[in-house]
């Protein structure tokens, strides 16, 4: 089940945090609960993706996106991602999450997120291709920024983000065609 109560808590907890620029970093703290673990008694890989929502949605709130979504009846989607899992997160372990937009093009906003253990080790890291959608499909990031009042210049695309985009573009779609 989706962690609605945890999402409400994160939104409430960060409701008065200062606004962030589009590329600002949102930091949040989370606990791996028993219902987040798998048979190996560690944070389930699928649940990791869900928990990243708990950092990404408050980030959207802090950059002014949530009011724009409501005004325009827009939605948020994930259009792709790449995750690195490097350290186990066990039940009741506290992690710090960092979330930020790193770059955007004419359709997508690329967001990176990471979970950090109390030891200072990075447990996992994700790069997401995200989009804002409206009735007519994907809303260009420039239109989203205008609606949120975030008239930021697009940063240089990091080499590792460019390489991931290029590699992902070589994948066949639809997949597994014979």
TrEMBL record:
Q: Which superkingdom is the protein from?
A: Bacteria
InterPro entries given for it? HotDog_dom_sf, THEM6_lcsJ_thioesterase
What is the protein's name according to its record? Thioesterase superfamily protein
Organism in which the protein naturally occurs: Roseovarius halotolerans
